[in-house]
């Protein structure tokens, strides 16, 4: 096997040749090897090269043979598949593979001049079609970048573009084998021939593709749509009048991952080793961080994990939540999250003075987010400002984990100011909320896995574990206190068999939490242990709201999609790995279980009972607020092409529902006060609307009504009877601010405060 260090410097030699310096010429008669396709290998008898050798000897020039492509590391495996040597005359160094089988003639110079590009091997002129096909699909010239600088003639074969590419790739902190492959890809994609083929294919795609296909592909990323609800809302529900006297200000609480996080400071050695890396304000899933995931995944995990003992920031890294609308509209460029909600609200007149986004570090539990960043103060101040500025109570919209955060804030505010929610919040819109937890949190804390990684094939799983080990995955998960806050809770019957041990024992919510506690203790995550101890104290309590008779709660969620509801475990086959005793049992399959993951109805992420119980049960939020509306969205892909990556305007998936047209229209009806008008004036609720463009007449409703597709009510009545007997505990005000941080900013001592 060749010295890998020497092969690793191939790009460096190519990059250093920018000035055109020539190295020593190869020995006379020296034969080099080059990499070709199997079908293009030369014959071993060497007869085809006799004329070339004779011609080169006549010209008294040492034969030069091109070798492997740039940055190819030759190993023993490569040697097994190495093609026979081929000699190439420097009189015409740009030799294509198509000419390798042409018979040699005396006088090499005449042979090369006589075979014109427009002629076939027999000397007959080629047709235009044959010439075009040869140009498009014929193999391009070989370039021996390893030895291309042995002489001025060989050096001329390397273009300036290839030199620049080599210099750029050489500066990247990548393994040598990755540099070789990267150069091959870049060099291939920058060829004019490839550009022509891609252009032709693009033209054919637009010309031949069925009508609407390209629109569906583009629709996956488009936000500024011509038929979006915000553009037709005034015509449909306000008789074309743009004045909305009942319009409420809006506060948005994003969910897990959907709020952008930024690196403000890092001193990790692995990050400093990156020559181009600048850690300041780099987003968690920005371009540089995606590159870091691919090149050094452990460095990325270390950067965004929390301290194992405190659950707060690491000593060497500081990560904070971005702020503003730009922090929630897109997850990565092109993948919209809240962008469609924002643009539709803007269509009916909303702006930064009537709409706000309260972002937070979603890695933290709500309590820790307030402890470190004062998050609850931020939410309270935003609500007060918007209510005072707009002279209306606000609409709070949360999604996913944002529901857990919103419930924690409402509880915190009620304990300090009785009636805060009733006075400041007209509507609480819960979109796909995890009010009673989500199974993914349990699997992430216990295994470092979820359905997405447990369902992949064995070979792919091995590659994934090699890229990011299971220990590294659950090490990251256990450092995030938010996952403990999202553990299943509230009702054991709603989570039957959440975890099934190798001996067949089924554990519910409490048993699973205790199992996770033991694993956190085993791995040294002390804060995880403390968080679960606190969680176990209230695990059986229903997540109630404050008493707010003037507040309406709207539950909007998708159904008809499988969501994770339980997991089968097995002992780790690697008995030497005592740190990871359990792994997912991917061999379990039955009616509702695949690869050891038990599924139930839901929105592809959150099970139905977590989405709907507090909205539908008699001891749910109906005991707390004046009105509860439940609106289910049945997942449908009708009218959308399979090429639409986001499911189209009727998708009910956990994140894609934020672009569901009907859901957006309901949010507009609530925020604009149209729903309020329908409640106060039932006689004006239903009305007929005629579309001026199509002439179709339909019956619309101003008020948002219940709509149920699933059998959630039957399940609650028949399977969750013990849950229905639970009390919806009221939120009691705190007795004293002695141990509270409410007045810490004033610097006032306890005795002086008590005298007030």
Write structural notes for this entry.
Among the domains are: 193 residues, no CATH class; 49 residues, no CATH class; 155 residues, no CATH class. 38% of the residues lie in helices and 13% in strands. It is built from 33 helices and 19 strands. The strands form five sheets. It has a six-stranded parallel beta sheet with strand order 7-1-8-9-12-17, sandwiched between helices. β5 and β6 form a beta hairpin. α12 crosses α29 and α16 crosses α29. The longest helix has 17 residues. The N and C termini lie far apart (84 Å).
Question: Brief overview, please?
Answer:
Residues 12-25 have a biased composition (Low complexity). With 756 residues, the protein is of the alpha/beta class.
